[in-house]
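Justification of resources, computational component.

The compute hours requested in this renewal are based largely on the per-chain cost of generating structure records like the one below. Each record pairs the submitted sequence with a full structure-token output. That output is archived, and it is also reused by downstream analysis tasks.
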Amino acid sequence: MRNFQRLNVGKLRDGIVRVIDFFYFPFLRRWIPCGLFRYGFCGAANVGLDLLLYFITFHYVLNETDIDLECVTVSAPVAALIIVFPITFLTGFWLARSITFQRSSLRGGTQLFRYLVTTGAAFLVNYFGLKLLVGWGIYPTPSRAIVAVFAVALSFFLNKQFSFRGCEMGGPQK
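The structure output for this chain reads:
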């Protein structure tokens, strides 16, 4: 059973890599390294998933209503962020580990812990940025998209330098 699961995950990974590499047009190769392109593609897909889930959670699950926990009230924009975070954390880790930083010599548990630390930093950027922009009167979903740009840049730097340190970013398959 374990080999079957590993085989399916391997096929999924290989399929995703083929799709990404299909969009890595020859003219892009002059300016963007393949590993950076893969990171950007995976990051954009994960941010897209995050924004979609955030929109659905904020508007339809929470009905734009704050959550009163008796001791504290969590605003609907922040509650949606907290609800969506575990899902996109796991998909982001899997994409980074399996697609972008496949050649890392670090053990999976070490990578996961480091990824949690770097994602925690990005989460704080998201939290405070969201509070700031929503406080300025910008709608929550566009605020989330704006803040995501800064969080992605921070995440890329931290993941490359810390979470998957010493790992060459994945290039085209031979």
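The chain has five helices and two strands. The mean pLDDT is 83.
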